[in-house]
């Protein structure tokens, strides 16, 4: 029999042969869809999926065959498909990148059959989440918080429309749909600075609300009347 065993119960776990080699990632290596292989699996954040219905992507000759039979979580975000890049070590990913990684996990949970958990970096041999996974989950929580803040900010301060031409120079302006935020106010263009950063982006600010206009991170465009809906950009 193969070295792959299943723990009973809902939370099935991919286990190595009892007390023997090969270690679990090597067991998963056999599931690459080659002739004679027991199946076509991949792992993401320690969740193992049967991806045989995506044979054209993950099977031999498929464009994403390198994901088969392993956990290459980091490459789902980095796009680094070299041997070095195909690793389950995601410790250098930013909170936003970890959010993207969990979007991929949601994709596999929706489209493919989960078949177990991989014993190793993310799950212990009893199927318990490791310290490492707890850390990744904390980074995910941080990423979701930052994403929610960014979404709230983009509603409060939607981006401006902008154009540039060599003859006329630059122009920024607001409309009821600029920044992809549909609203019943137009707003006036302002530069919005992130605290501690020298760079800014153009946002539309609701002019009827003095509290919003007084935000200390906003600055008016030079030479543009404070309540104008459109500003030409002075080239420096
Ligand atoms: C971080 C970079 C990328 C990753 C991790 C990635 C990963 C994937 C994966 C896992 C699939 C299979 C999805 C499934 O199971 O249905 C897929 C499909 C696909 N990818 Fe990518 N991809 C990346 C970048 C790109 C880029 C840059 C392009 C195009 C220039 C691209 C084009 C496609 C296409 C066209 C499909 C669908 C193929 C089909 O349905 O026949 N991907 N990608």
From TrEMBL:
Report domain Cytochrome b5 heme-binding positions: 23-119
InterPro entries in alphabetical order? Cyt_B5-like_heme/steroid-bd, Cyt_B5-like_heme/steroid_sf, MAPR/NEUFC/NENF-like
Quote the Pfam families the UniProt record gives.
Cyt-b5 (PF00173)
Q: Which Gene Ontology cellular-component terms appear in the entry?
A: endomembrane system; membrane
Function of the protein: Heme-binding protein which promotes neuronal but not astrocyte differentiation.
UniProt record similarity statement = Belongs to the cytochrome b5 family. MAPR subfamily.
Return the protein name: Neuferricin
Name the species this protein comes from: Scleropages formosus (Asian bonytongue)
What is this organism's lineage? Answer: Eukaryota, Metazoa, Chordata, Craniata, Vertebrata
């Amino acid at each position: 029999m193969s070295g792959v065993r299943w723990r009973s119960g809902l939370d099935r776990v991919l286990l190595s042969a009892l007390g023997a080699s090969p270690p679990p990632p090597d067991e998963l290596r056999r599931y690459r869809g080659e002739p004679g292989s027991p199946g076509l699996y991949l792992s993401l954040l320690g969740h193992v999926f049967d991806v045989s219905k995506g044979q054209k992507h993950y099977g031999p000759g498929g464009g994403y065959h390198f994901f088969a039979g392993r956990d290459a979580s980091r490459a789902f975000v980095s796009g680094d498909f070299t041997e070095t890049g195909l690793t389950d070590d995601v410790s250098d990913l930013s909170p936003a990148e970890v959010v993207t990684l969990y979007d991929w996990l949601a994709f596999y949970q929706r489209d493919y059959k989960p078949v177990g958990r991989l014993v190793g970096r993310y799950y212990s041999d009893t199927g318990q989440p490791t310290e490492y996974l707890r850390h990744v989950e904390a980074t995910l929580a941080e990423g979701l918080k930052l994403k929610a803040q960014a979404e709230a900010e983009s509603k409060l301060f939607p981006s401006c429309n902008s154009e540039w031409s060599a003859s006329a120079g630059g122009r920024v302006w607001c409309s009821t749909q600029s920044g992809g935020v549909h609203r019943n106010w137009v707003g006036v263009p302002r530069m919005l600075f992130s605290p501690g950063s020298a760079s800014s982006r153009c946002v539309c600010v609701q002019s009827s609300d003095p509290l919003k206009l007084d935000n200390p991170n906003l600055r008016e465009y030079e030479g543009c009347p404070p309540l104008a809906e459109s500003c030409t950009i002075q080239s420096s």
